[in-house]
Amino acid sequence: MAGDKALFNAVDGLVREHLGSSFPAAAAAVFHEGQLVLNAGWGVLNPDSSGRARPATPETRFDLASVTKLFTTTAFLSLVSEGKTGLDAPLADVLPEFATSGPRPVDGGQDPHSKRKLDTPPDKLGLRVDPARITFRRLLTHTSGLAPWRDVYNAAGGPPTPPDTPDPTPRPVRWARALEALCQYPFVSAPDGIVRYSDLGLMLLGEATARLHGAPLDETITARVLRPLAVDAACFNPVREGRVPREQCAPTEDDPAWRKRRIWGEVHDENACGVGGVAGHAGLFADALSVARLGQAWLDSAGVFGIDPALAQEAASEQAATAGERRGLGWMLKSVENSSAGERFSADSFGHTGFTGTSLWIDPAAQLVVAALTNAVYGGRERLALLGFRRALHERIWDVVCR
After folding, report:
1. What pTM, to 2 d.p., does this model score?
2. Collapsing DSSP states into helix, strand and coil, what is residue 182?
């Protein structure tokens, strides 16, 4: 544990109320006015083990899930600032194969939990969408009309082997199959300005980012985000690539259906796992301090990444909103009601959450950055108490450091 004792005591009490019921392990790192005031870990990594429990620590690597999107966004916006492309440029300028299908039909998409294909809404029957209309801005604001989710992992190939064994299907092969499918799927709507959160859009943005930089996405994010942050505790495929022992990673869900094993040291998200563990929407593992450093860099206008200050301000400002869900460029903005950032954070706060139980929130008015990581999917995907925990955590932190 590092930082302010009063803050630690306040957070410690709340986390311990949720240990074992909401998640077995957690970590948090907090910056206030540029100073690190909390960096701590709680719980155990192997609660079902009959042997000695391994404690979670501030160095524990958590599966960031969709918080990965922020690292992809940061790398992409650094390329925009260099003039490599523009926000309103078509995706097909960089990924020409995305538009070679010509106009595509619209369907109802696919449920990410049941995997069931959904019926096409009556008002969408017969509609076709020209993929050449999809711009990078549309991907970043989740207004592209792409489906929120598809079973890309089935197109990519069978489940990978456990992460401590070689996978017989090379990662480039998995990704090539996935990209072919991503360039053929139907849309669920025209790009009409309505926010429809889409993992597919960030998978495509990740490929575009890699091509613009001229290296695979993991190398691109390392060069453009992790290295400027001086962060070496974040990476894709931590176990498979020998970066981190499995025992230093927080395990997530038991997967009896597809991988047929407890997910430990490999990405929880099926699509990210199926394409080889590296994707624009999910796949990064990191400790809480590394995530908080990303937030602090954005609070400082993202100059360390070479992002133009005006573009950084635009990214953290409202670009689209639907039914109270507000979006910047790659960033979630604090929702009008029931935000995971709680009630204290200002309306200008921006951040992102991850399905595994992770989040990063930044309050520019309070000069406050909070990275909160858990493995809330350890016991399954319901995560019933997670929103309440997140809200209470951010309110408690704000109350201690900002009053």
Report:
1. 0.97
2. helix
